[in-house]
């Protein structure tokens, strides 16, 4: 249940006008600091078992306790929108974190700080009330849109594009752009190889002391973090003053958005506290509408794949303005934000007539005219060594094979069919999870033994 606590909150905020950024019609910079001197809960969207605001023990003053050293604790917080109705083209987010003193030698599971785009599942009504809208279905995965920085204290979970690590993971629009391992557990305050900001106090826990009392975080210090995105799309991430990323060029496309912070504990646990959160943005409005993309074509056409290419749209009066693309198949949008001039559609079926529409979108999300293309996919042709694999998604987790094949969904047509190389699927380096989770895969093939005789076959 979402918990709102209505009380007075003080925001230290200043606003300064900017002009002429990226050729947009108007630009404003918001500079907002939340120092948690007073209870901010009435201004936040909160999902947690307790009020996260603590009135003393911050850096200085109060702070937010995202997690305590309590088993199976979850907390999600959406911070105020500093630029309502505007597009954020760049931002700098800074703050202080206090992390550590787990009840066991190794903490689990971690936390994330994200700048989520408008429309992110977490920003939807009720989205913060569970972890389902976060990457991988875990709070430390961060949001699936925008920029997410994951402070992961326990490796062994799976993100949409591979396994996690014990360290810091940076993701842009649900794609991992950096993994930095931090191998030292419960390191010293300024140890840049540790996610924690101080040692574990084993004696405190041996005495059966309270995880919410100041003594449980007395040995931890505050350390700074920073996430900076320039208007050119270059991303910098810092922890304890050390650069995790240094001006990495991303394909981030500007949009409206908000800060989301979330954390959880598992069977092991630790403190996660935040103070002095500051967000400085460059936020703009734009009115120019992109021209229709040119030269839309199917560069590659198969039975279950169509690779589309097109020429760039432009913004009238702003030749250097940023444009993204929306791809529609048979009246349904299948890719709402494409920053390249190509899209690989693997959701088609053999012998099917498909009509595509591609349109440019400005940074405000306003779409221009369509370009349209109709193609017909070819029929399947079986080949040696490449059997078909049919996939049904949404099968409940931990379901036995015997029960899975009696699931009503299994009687339907598969959600996806692919050709696979041999009898395996997915990428083994990523635990075979590139097809997602909670699914059933059936591989159909004829195996011809290379020689006569008895043989044994095994499935693993």
Characterise the protein shown here.
The chain is mainly beta and 460 residues long. The longest helix is centred in the middle third of the chain and has 5 residues, at 202-206. Strands 1, 2, 4, 5, 7, 14, 15, 16 and 18 form a nine-stranded antiparallel sheet that branches. A seven-stranded antiparallel sheet has the order 3-6-17-8-9-12-13, with no helix packed on it. Strands 22-21-24-25 form a four-stranded antiparallel sheet, with no helix packed on it. The two termini are 41 Å apart. Helix content is 2%, strand content 41%.
What proportion of the residues form beta strands (DSSP E)? 35-45%
Order of helical and strand elements: EEEEEEEEEEEEEHEEEEEEEEEEEEEHEE
Proportion of residues in helical segments: under 10%
Which structural class best describes the helix and strand composition? mainly beta
DSSP strand count: 28
> What is the arithmetic mean of pLDDT?
86
Shape: globular
Extract low-pLDDT stretches: 1-26
Q: How many helices in DSSP terms?
A: 2
Radius of gyration: 25 Å
Major beta sheet, specifics?
Answer: 9 strands, antiparallel
Measured between the Cα atoms of the first and last residue, the distance is 41 Å
């Amino acid at each position: 249940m979402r918990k709102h606590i209505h009380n007075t909150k003080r925001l230290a905020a200043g606003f300064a006008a900017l002009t002429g950024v990226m050729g947009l019609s108007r630009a404003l910079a918001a500079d907002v600091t939340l120092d948690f001197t007073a209870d901010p809960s009435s201004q936040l969207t909160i999902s947690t078992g307790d009020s996260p605001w603590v009135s003393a023990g911050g850096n200085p003053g109060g702070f937010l306790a995202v997690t305590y050293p309590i088993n199976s604790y979850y907390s999600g917080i959406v911070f105020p929108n500093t630029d309502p109705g505007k597009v954020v083209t760049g931002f700098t987010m800074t703050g202080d974190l206090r992390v550590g003193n787990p009840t066991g030698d190794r903490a689990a599971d971690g936390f994330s700080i994200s700048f989520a785009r408008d429309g992110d599942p977490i920003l939807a009504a009720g989205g913060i009330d569970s972890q389902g809208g976060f990457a991988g279905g875990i709070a430390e995965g961060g949001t699936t849109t925008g920029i997410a920085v994951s402070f992961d204290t326990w490796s062994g979970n799976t993100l949409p594009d591979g396994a996690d690590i014990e360290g810091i993971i940076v993701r842009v629009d649900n794609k991992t752009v950096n993994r930095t391992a931090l191998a030292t557990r419960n390191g010293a305050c300024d140890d840049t190889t540790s996610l924690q900001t101080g040692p574990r106090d084993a004696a405190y826990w041996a005495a059966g002391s309270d995880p919410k009392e100041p003594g449980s975080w007395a040995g931890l210090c505050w350390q700074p973090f920073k996430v900076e995105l320039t208007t050119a799309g270059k991303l910098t991430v810092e922890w304890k003053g050390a650069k995790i990323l240094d001006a990495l060029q991303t394909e981030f496309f500007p949009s409206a958005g908000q800060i989301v912070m979330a954390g959880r504990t598992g069977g092991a646990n630790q403190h996660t506290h935040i103070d002095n959160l500051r967000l400085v943005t460059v936020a703009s409005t734009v009115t120019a509408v992109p021209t229709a993309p040119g030269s839309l074509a199917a560069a590659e056409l198969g039975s279950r794949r169509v690779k589309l290419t097109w020429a760039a749209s432009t913004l009238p009066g702003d030749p250097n303005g940023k444009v993204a693309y929306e791809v529609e198949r048979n009246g349904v949008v299948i890719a709402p934000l494409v920053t390249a001039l190509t899209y690989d559609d693997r959701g088609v079926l053999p012998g099917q007539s498909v009509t595509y529409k591609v349109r440019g979108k400005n940074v405000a999300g306003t779409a221009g005219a369509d370009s349209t293309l109709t193609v017909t996919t070819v029929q399947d042709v079986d080949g040696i060594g490449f059997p078909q694999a049919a996939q049904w998604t949404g099968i409940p987790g931990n379901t036995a094979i015997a029960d899975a094949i009696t699931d009503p969904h299994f009687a339907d047509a598969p959600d996806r069919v692919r050709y696979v190389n041999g009898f395996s699927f997915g990428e083994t380096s990523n635990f075979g999870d590139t097809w997602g989770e909670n699914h059933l895969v059936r591989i159909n093939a004829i195996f011809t033994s290379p020689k006569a005789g008895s043989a044994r076959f095994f499935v693993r």
